[in-house]
Amino acid sequence: MQTLAGRVAIVTGAGQGIGRGVALCLARAGAHVVINDLVQERISRTVSEVEALTVRALGVVGDVTQSQDVDRLVQETLHHFGSIDILVNNAGIAVLKPMVEHSEAEWDAVLNVNLKGVFLCCQRVVPEMIKQKRGAIVNIASIAAFHYTVPHVPYAASKAGVVALTRDLAYEVARFGVRVNAIAPGPIETPLMASALSPQQKEAYARSIPLGRLGQPEDIGEAVVFLVSDAASYITGATLPVSGGTDLRVLNV
């Protein structure tokens, strides 16, 4: 069912991983999708996959930490499609090591992409949604905002910030017909995971998950489709864990 037919969605960090999965799920639901990423090659690949689903796609290279790039992303979307109905703030990075080993530059980089990037994109898109008195935003957080997972304090802090930003912004814009929610993924099989965990660690991680498998990017994508659809029209300010049950227990016993 094309529940999002004709709607226009921006997905940041959509060249690979979760962002690509979200873009493809939105396209299958009928949305036209704007693919943002830092790397043109990744954008082009996702654009081709989206267009193969018989909807329109636009690729925009840009850095979500740079206000001028975010302004250009919004303006190009409006120029090509005339409106912005959906925003998915997915772009994110992580550095895995104990807090005392992080440099100040690493802290700044993670917080800039994961939290400042969400702020900038929301700040630029929300006025357009207020004008049209409708819109749905989904911010990609993490179960790391609530639970210890692996050593990555800046990442966990940034994702906790995303949850708080989501809640407060949802309250601010609800009266304008704009909904803001978050998804907190658990372990998802992405290039980021592949770079962080060995195959043996990945296999052990999968065995520890109550549902018995690693998540796939499309698992997050389908949850996004639900949250931005009319089926979720009475949901705002919520953070939905999509984790295979990883967040349900502290000890594996």
Question: Would you summarize the structure shown here?
Answer:
The chain contains 8 helices and 7 strands, in the order E-H-E-H-E-H-E-H-E-H-E-H-H-H-E. It is of the alpha/beta class.
CATH superfamily: NAD(P)-binding Rossmann-like Domain
User: Which radius of gyration do the C-alpha atoms yield?
Assistant: 17 Å
Detail the poorly predicted runs: none
Q: Averaging pLDDT over every residue, what do you get?
A: 95
Count of individual beta strands: 7
Strand order of the largest sheet: 3-2-1-4-5-6-7
Structural class by sheet pairing and helices:
alpha/beta
Describe the largest sheet. Answer: 7 strands, parallel
C-alpha geometry: globular
Tell me the CATH architecture: 3-Layer(aba) Sandwich
Spell the H/E element sequence.
EHEHEHEHEHEHHHE
Number of domains: 1
Task: Give the C-level CATH assignment.
Answer: Alpha Beta
| Distinct helical segment count | 8
- Gap between N and C termini, in Å? 41 Å
CATH topology value: Rossmann fold
Helix content: 40-55%
Which range does the strand content fall in?
5-15%
